[in-house]
Each structure stands twice: as C-alpha cells, then as structure tokens.
Specification:
single chain; little secondary structure; 9 helices
Length: 709
C-alpha cells in the first residue's frame, strides 16, 4: 500500500513538472518559434498543444475523432483547423486519394514534410540556403534596408528574412520590397537585430531537413528555392529534392539513378502539381490551352514558351475533328517521355491506334523540334513552310482517285485554313477528276444532288464534311454500303439506296461500285410487272424496242431516262407533263393516269372529225379493264362514231364491222391487232389514199369490194 502511494506521488510530481516545463517554455521560447507559427501571428505552444491533455504529442482533445478517410488523421485535423482558407491557406495532403491508388492506399501527413516549429532548411544548411545575404544599413520594427542593394521590386515578396543571422531563431515574412528596402510583417525584435548585422533571405516553407520516407527511411532534403539547384527536383545525381526523396515507382524523379530525372529538371513542380490539389497535377490546361487557340494559349507558364508564334490548326484538329493530342505528338502529349522537354516541340504522327504513322512536318524556322519513335519514323525540318505531308489524314484515302498506286498526299499549311478545304486532299467533282469507282456515273447523272446523297454529313457541293465521320480511317457511305471500313478493303454494294429500287420504293441491291454501268435489270425486270407495263410492252407490243415514249430518252434494257435518279416517278415524252401524267410523283403512291397522250385519244379530233384537236381518255395505270375499245374513241354509230363516212358504213347492211376496213380490228370493236394500232398512223385497207399521220385529211378507197360497178 505504501509502495502504491509512493508511485502515485511520483506520478503527480512528474505531471506537475511537465506542466510547469510547458508553461515555462510557453513564456520563454514563444518568441523564438519561427514565422509563420510565431507570436506575430498570435501563435504559441498552447495554440496547438493541450498542456493538460493525454493525447499523443499533447494534441487537443477535440482533434481525436473517427476518421472519414486515410487523410483525415488527428494530426492533419489540427493543421486544417487553421489552414482553412480563412485563417491560413488550405492545402490537401499528398495521398492516393488525391493522385490514384495504383500503388495501393497511402497518405503523407503534413508533419512528415513540414516542421511546424522551425524553418529547418535555414537552421540546418545555413548560408547554403540563403537566396540573398548582405549587411543591413537600417532596421526598424517593419523595415530592413541595405543601401544600394539593387533588388528588383517585389522579387522577394512572400519569402522570409532573418534580420540577424547570428540570431537565427528570429525570422519574419517579407511583405514587399523596393530596390533596397524590405517591408516586413513585424514587429521585428530590435533587441535581436540592428543596423550592421548580416541578414539573409530564405525561401521558408517550414520544410524539414530530414524526412522519414514511407519506403526508403530517413532522407536528407535540400529545398532552397522553387526552381534551379536544390529545388523540388533539380535533376542532378544527388536525390535530395523534396519531390524525389520518397519516389520509388514514379515515371520521373525517383530517389535513385533508375528514375527518369530529365523531366522538367529544376522547374517549379507546383506550377503543374499544386499543393492545393495534393500535388495531383492540374492537367494540360495548367500549362497551355487544351487546345491552344491563339498565341497566348500556346504556353503560359514559366520559364517561357517554345517560341512558336501561332496556334495554327490546333482548335480545328481537336475541337472540330476530334483528334487527340497524341495523334501528332505521339509519346509526348500528356505523360510522354519527351513532353515539355526543354521547351522543344516534339512531333510524331500516329493515327487511329498507330495504323498510320510516319509523315513529315516542316515547322517554323528558329524553333527547336524533335521527334518520337514511330514506324516508319516521323521526320521534321524547320524551313518555315509550316506544312505536314505524307500522312493519311491529308490524302486521297485509297489511291489517287482511281489510280493503281497508293494515295496522293496533300501538304496543307498549319496556319492557313484555306490550304485544307475540300478539294485540296482529293478531287471533289467529276469535272475535277473524281472518277474513282463509280463516282463519274453518279456525279454526272441528273437527279444526284451531290456528295451528301451517299456520304452522310457531306455538303452536296463538297464545301464541308461533318467532322464525326470524316478522316476517321473508315469509308463512311450511307445506304447500307457493304464495304465500309478501312480504306483499301475493296468496293461493295448498297442495299438501301433510294436511287436503286424497283420503281415502287422497294430497295434493290446495287451493282458493285466501280463495275461497268448497270443495266436496267440490276434493279427491276427489263419489262416490269408493275402497273400496265406488261400490257403496253408485251400484250400490245407498244413501242417494243424502246421505253422512251413514256420515259424520255430511255432505251429498253440498257439506258435509263435522264431523270431516272431523282427519286420520283417521271412519265413524259420530251418535256415534263407533256403526256398529262403528274410530274415528280412520289414512288410507292397510288397510280395516276395520262390525260394528254395520243395513244389514249380519238386520234384525229374531238368528235372524230369535227375538229383538229383530239379528245383524250384518261385510263388509270394498272387498271386492266380501264382501256378497252370505246374508252378512247367511239366504236359504233350508236355510240357516236359518225366522223367521215363511219355513219353510212356502220349503219349499212352488208358491213360486218371494223374489220372490213381495218385489218386486225374485231368487227364488234372488242379488240385490235396491237402491231397496227396506236402506231401514229391511220391504217385503212382497200388502198386508202390518206394513210398516214392523223389529221392529214380524208382520202378514198380504190380497191374496196363494197364499192364496185
């Protein structure tokens, strides 16, 4: 029992000692904590340490909590209580949550890299860490002057000054500077600094001089500035940059010789990899436009641009055509090994998954270019023409528009839009030479509007093409073209082309593209079975050899009419409407009739002889019983057939009927031999003197048996 009391007494005494020591330290060294965690910002030991607490490192009780993720540690919670973008800037810690978890889940607490109490870089490395050192000629509570210093205005703004290097514990923020005076966030402790002291300016971000890394133990760190030697990663063989001391699996700047240390060596890493984002990187737009659209968005970060004077066609290629950066900057754009390598423009053409590589670019004179490895290699020169050549996207695609050799390549100018309009890479009309495949037959045909009839998105006049389906390493043809796909895969057929159907709107498979001109039977029968085609051509043998009497200029079996591909039903003899059939009648609609066709008329006149103008019948096309004898002209005296001497003859005893005068005519007017009927002639037997075209006047019979002595 006595032993337990002694132990309790010792514990009480020890706690009193610790508390007293902390209170003493709070009073005695509060002024010695380095900026920014110092009394000038009202920060002392008790700002972060709960002297009566039991938490590790005497952290305040309220920092103990159930974490929501791996970054939400007790220590980080304390840091973020002030670093909240109100009292102090907010930053994310470096972790797999901010980068990626390709190497598993990991997090680096704030205190791993930062010493919250002291500017350890200056404390450890002394004069080696000084960005500037001199002798002060005047020191006040808020200024330090070195007469004749010759500083650039505000070049040290935001950094830290040590007014007296012999009193290194006393450090202050530089608010601004003139050419010889620093304005300081004070007040400066004038008992520790005076005119004539050696002062120094340091970067000052509370970075530890030794960092305990996750996989490589304790590593010495030299971090004296944002760029140059002893910066984030300066590329030398001593791997002591604050960015490289931990890295063992990254592509760049590992903490040993195996890492690639050429990437942006000595460049300010946080320009692209901001602390605000946990060093995740801001993406392409942190350095230049995506894509660059003008000279101002080519490169807009230190240490300067590539020297290129124009953004050229970046916007057209990326935004309009949809190409990614690696199409022209293969193995460079993004995380490529040659990206942003000494501000050299890296070229390497690799299109459509590497299918088309190589080519040549002749760039701006005076600019540094290099190339990546493509197969075949991309080559670069810099004579100032700004042209690319020898690459698929600026070519005829398949061949020289019909030639047996490979494609013909254009050389558009990077900064001249007019050099890459339609027609600069391939021909665009029959007149300009676009005759490959069956282009000539189609583009030269009446009724074909132009490119857009077969290539969805193309302007008919070849002035533009939709970006989504042009220059995409694929033959893009509408109408269910069977050979779409990679250029050079051969010609195919269309199975849903409105211009190739049976005349009623039902699609027909077209002939092979590039084959000889198709006969009529490629889409429908030589004499279609639709409507009244069979009756006109087969039964009555009307104009058996030609189709042109109803379809202008058509030749049966071989030659379509001139308007055959206009996607309408066109029935006329020489001019639209001259047969009285509706013009441009939609395919697949109800049949109509001709109202001015000689073959459906009285032949000579309105009343079979009383006028020079015929009367026209209008039988419905496709109606088998709609054009019998009597629908076009009178067939008996009783029905009104009285022209000429019809009345006297038909009303006479001994006249059998029509057949007595017209061979092939049935006496009861029920039929007529097709060969001699509706042939554009008056056909009368008995050596009739006025045989011939209708309207040539009446004549006489010279051998009629009914007229003798």
């Amino acid at each position: 029992m006595e032993r337990m009391n002694i132990l309790r007494l010792k514990a009480i005494v020890f706690n009193i000692f610790i508390i007293s020591l902390i209170l003493f330290l709070k009073v005695s060294i509060a002024d010695a904590l380095d900026y920014p965690h110092y009394d000038g910002n009202n920060i002392g030991c008790d700002s972060c340490h709960f002297v009566y607490g039991t938490q590790p490192d005497l952290l305040p009780e309220w920092t103990a909590h159930a974490p929501t993720d791996i970054d939400d540690t007790q220590s980080n919670t304390l840091c973020w209580s002030c670093h909240n973008d109100i009292e102090a800037p907010y930053v994310r810690t470096h972790s797999s949550l901010q980068i990626d978890n390709g190497y598993g889940d990991w997090t680096i607490e704030c205190k791993v890299c930062h010493n919250p109490h002291y500017q350890k870089q200056a404390d450890t490395h002394g004069s080696a860490s000084y960005l500037y050192s001199g002798t002060s000629t005047n020191v006040t509570a808020t200024t330090l002057t070195e007469t004749g210093a010759g500083w650039t205005v505000n070049e040290y703004q935001g950094l830290v000054v040590i007014p007296n290097t012999a009193q290194i514990r006393y450090k202050y923020k530089i608010i601004s500077n003139t050419n010889e005076t620093l304005t300081i966030e004070g007040p400066v402790n004038l008992t520790k600094a005076a005119a004539g002291n050696t002062f120094a300016i340091v970067y000052g971000k509370l970075v530890n001089s030794t960092i305990n890394t996750p996989n490589s133990g304790g590593k010495a760190v030299k971090f004296f500035d944002t760029s140059g030697t002893n910066s984030f990663a300066d590329g030398d063989s001593t791997y002591d940059g604050v960015c490289e001391i931990c890295h063992t699996q990254t592509t760049y700047h590992q903490n040993n010789a195996t890492g690639n240390h050429s990437h942006n060596s000595g460049v300010n890493c946080i320009t692209c990899h901001t602390h605000t984002d946990g060093f995740a990187g801001t993406g392409c737009t942190g350095c230049h436009g995506l894509p660059p659209v003008d000279a101002g968005t080519l490169v807009f970060i230190p240490p300067g641009g590539t020297g290129s004077a124009t953004a050229g066609a970046h916007e057209v290629h990326v935004m309009t055509k949809g190409y990614d950066c690696s199409s022209c900057h293969f193995d460079s754009a993004g995380a490529g090994g040659l990206h942003n390598n000494s501000l050299t423009i890296t070229m390497g053409y690799s299109l459509f998954g590497g299918t088309y590589q190589g080519g040549h670019y002749d760039g701006q004179s005076g600019i540094s270019y290099n190339t990546t490895t493509t197969i075949p290699p991309t080559t670069v020169s810099s004579t100032g023409s700004n042209t690319c050549s020898g690459i698929y996207c600026h070519s005829t695609g398949q061949a020289s528009d019909g030639g047996p050799s490979g494609p013909t390549y254009a050389t558009p100018k990077w900064d001249d839009p007019a050099s890459a309009v339609c027609g600069t890479c391939h021909d665009v009309s029959e007149g300009s030479g676009l005759t490959s495949g069956s282009h000539g037959e189609h583009l030269g045909a009446t009724g074909v509007n132009g490119c857009g009839d077969c290539h969805t998105g193309a302007a008919d006049n070849a002035s533009s093409y939709a970006s989504s389906n042009h220059v995409n390493a694929s033959i893009d043809v509408a109408n269910s073209y069977s050979a779409g796909g990679a250029p050079g895969n051969g010609y195919g057929t269309c199975s849903a082309a409105s211009c190739h159907d049976d005349g009623t709107g039902n699609p027909a498979v077209t002939p092979q593209w590039g084959s000889s001109p198709a006969p009529c039977t490629a889409c429908h029968a030589e004499v279609p079975g639709t409507g009244s085609h069979q009756k006109h051509v087969v039964t009555t043998q009307y104009n058996k050899a030609l189709c042109g009497d109803c379809h202008d200029s058509a030749v049966r079996g071989t030659t379509p009419p001139s308007d055959h591909l206009d996607n309408n039903i066109d029935v006329y003899d020489a001019l639209a409407g001259d047969l009285g059939y509706p013009s441009d009648k939609a395919k697949g609609t109800a049949y109509a009739s001709c109202s001015a066709a000689y073959c459906h008329s009285t032949g000579q006149s309105v009343s079979d002889g009383n006028s020079s103008t015929p009367t026209y019948a209008t039988p419905i096309w496709g109606n088998g019983g709609g054009a019998v004898c009597g629908t076009c002209h009178r067939v008996s005296e009783a029905s009104g057939l009285t022209s000429g001497r019809h009345g006297e003859h038909l009303g006479s005893t001994g006249v059998n009927g029509c057949g007595d005068c017209q061979t092939g005519g049935a006496n009861d007017a029920s039929a007529y031999n097709s060969v001699t009927h509706v042939d554009g002639f008056i056909d009368v037997e008995n050596t009739y003197s006025a045989d011939g075209p209708p309207g040539n006047g009446y004549g006489t019979c010279q051998t009629a048996s009914c007229h003798d002595d």
